[in-house]
Specification:
370 residues; alpha/beta; Rossmann fold; four-stranded parallel β-sheet; 46% helix
């Protein structure tokens, strides 16, 4: 191959990358920002609760932002070209969003996922032209994605490593900038707390850095499934893995402390039982008139603890959390009575506890103890 043909090949690849970035930017330009919903709290006067509704993204979840950032990061770093097969390790939602962007750019996409991933997510991935490659346990996704990427000569996106660095945390309409801009005209425009879960840790890193960059008084709370390692790592930095049964809440909580998770940015952690997450998601869905996934329930339970504490101390202010995705993605799992019964998941006491929070302003945990 001559030097001229090498230069021509490089020029073609650069043109393709330029076109790919323009395609992603055009897609972003077509997509309106997600809404910030105010949730009535009549029992907690002076305290306002808001939900950033990330389910309205084109691919239906918070992970749409991450997937877009990861693709731009890969393109601008020279790791994605016109013939690159994209491979990702995911519990489902990131894979759905990445399959969408891969299809947008005409690239093959393979998602390495636990076999227990909800069927609805698998359907969405294949609808966008992606292929699902299953492993038996969540902890096996990393090595298998890396192996498969090497075998295919592709690019392993590795959201768990690159999530915290792919997003421009200073602005550029990231989720943090969007939240605080939308809060500008509210009674308490600077939230006392923002409550988020962590899967990769990318969202908590973006919000935590933005808070510091803008020198805000807002504090950041991690809402974490009980089975996850993140809240354990915050309590004891030597703890980096868990060996127990994984959480059934998809998208947040991990068995290992991911490279993108930055514990120094977290001011408080709340460990939430899976039953509490599912119950809170159901109650919130009824009150909002829109379906919420389990991770949104985790966020709500943690936010309810904070709000009840504020109310008991006579404090006022605002609390913001995320509606991460729709419950429609879990029709075959969390919303299926048979699926719950097979796992012995009784939600009624937890549902009553969440209702008591809304009606009386008390912590849901206080109702369970009583």
């Amino acid at each position: 191959m001559t030097e001229d043909s090498d230069l021509q090949g490089t020029a073609r690849a650069r043109r393709w990358i330029n076109d790919a970035i323009e395609t992603i930017e055009a897609d972003f330009n077509r997509s309106a920002d997600t809404h910030l919903l105010r949730v009535p709290l009549p029992a907690c006067l002076g305290i306002d609760l808001y939900l950033k509704d990330e389910s309205t993204h084109p691919t239906g979840s918070l992970k749409h932002r991450l997937a877009r950032s990861l693709f731009l990061y890969g393109l601008c770093s020279g790791r994605i070209g016109p013939d690159t097969t994209i491979v990702e390790a995911s519990s489902g939602s990131t894979a759905v969003s990445e399959a969408y962007f891969a299809q947008l750019l005409g690239l093959p996409f393979v998602a390495v996922m636990p076999r227990a991933t909800s069927a609805e997510k698998v359907v969405q991935i294949t609808r966008y032209g992606g292929r699902c490659h299953f492993v038996e346990t969540p902890c096996a996704v990393y090595a298998e994605a890396e192996r498969l990427s090497a075998a295919l000569g592709g690019h392993y996106m590795d959201q768990f490593t690159f999530a915290e660095r792919a997003t421009d945390w200073r602005g550029n309409n990231n989720i943090a900038e969007s939240i605080f801009a939308q809060m500008a005209l509210e009674t308490h425009p600077v939230p006392a707390w923002v409550v988020v879960g962590a899967g990769t840790g990318g969202t908590s890193a973006t919000i935590g850095r933005f808070i510091r960059y803008r020198r805000l008084t807002t504090r950041l709370c991690l809402a974490d499934p009980e089975a996850s390692v993140f809240h354990r790592h915050l309590a004891d930095r030597s703890v980096r893995t868990t060996d127990g049964r994984p959480s059934i809440i998809e998208g947040i909580g991990r068995g290992r402390c991911e490279p993108s998770f930055l514990p120094e940015l977290i001011d408080r952690a709340e460990a939430v039982p899976d039953r509490a997450s599912l119950a809170a998601a159901r109650v919130l869905s009824e009150r909002l008139g829109r379906s919420c996934g389990g991770s949104t329930g985790t966020n709500l339970w943690a936010a309810a603890r904070i709000i009840a504490g504020m109310a008991a101390a006579g404090k006022t202010g605002s609390v913001v959390t995320l509606l991460c995705d729709s419950g429609e993605r879990y029709r075959s799992t969390h919303l299926d009575p048979r699926w719950l019964a097979e796992r012995g998941l009784v939600l009624e006491p937890y549902i009553a506890a969440v209702e008591a929070f809304f009606e009386r302003g008390v912590s849901p945990d206080a109702i369970l103890v009583a």
